């Protein structure tokens, strides 16, 4: 009983903490000023730049993991479903990974270099490729397995291949802090990069209102779920104390 109570309190605290963090992120997203590339200045941030993602000459792009196309940002997961006679259908992660390259974000006023960070927040639409066995596997998925060896090339399982992509030519929004950098010839330019807290850097294919709304809603859901867990733990704890008290009385009398 005591373990259950601690688990409920712990789960509630974890959910509330994450919910408050998401609400804080929503406020930071709302505070980011929509800015044109031509108006960027070092130390201005955070700003929100919306434009077309382009590859940098000499840096390039890479193949999208599970679909055709060339990507600049790729956040991927591979999960496997299995059946347990007691627990029923279960799913576990076989792989998760993030691949990025610096790229350009261009609007009608110019282009700015973007330097992704591993700890940034990637709020991008997911694409899921499902398979039952190897005979159903798509060519891009098979090429990704052959190229990376990230998961076993098995044929008797059921997998989901999930990806979040920013592709070449796609419209995207980046929330970041403009910073000054120097080129190979000493020239000064501005680029978008992570600040002191890399998780404040956001990559998304949603517009500003959608991003703010979804982030705030997720935060409220986490807080609500955490509050429910904590509230349920209170009567459980009181009941536990009551029965413990009765048990002690029986021992003493």
Offer a quick outline of the entry.
Helices cover 34% and strands 36% of the residues. It has 253 residues and is an alpha+beta fold.
Could you list some keywords that capture this structure?
single chain, 253 residues, alpha+beta, 2 domains, five-stranded mixed β-barrel, five-stranded antiparallel sheet, 3 helices, 34% helix, 36% strand, elongated
Explain this structure.
- This protein has 253 residues and is α+β, with helices and mostly antiparallel strands.
- It folds into two domains: 1-31 and 208-253; 33-205, no CATH class.
- Helix content is 34%, strand content 36%.
- The chain is built from three helices and 13 strands; from the N terminus they run αβββββββββαββββα.
- It has helices at residues 2-31, 139-148, 208-252, and strands spanning 33-34, 47-55, 62-63, 70-84, 88-100, 103-107, 110-114, 121-123, 126-131, 158-167, 171-182, 188-193, 202-204.
- A five-stranded mixed β-barrel has the order 2-6-7-12-11. Strands 3, 4, 5, 9 and 10 form a five-stranded antiparallel sheet that branches.
- A hairpin with a 2-residue loop joins β6 (103-107) and β7.
- α1 (2-31) packs antiparallel against α3 (208-252).
- The radius of gyration is 24 Å and the shape is elongated.
- The protein starts with a helix and ends with a helix.
- The model has no long low-confidence stretch (mean pLDDT 76).
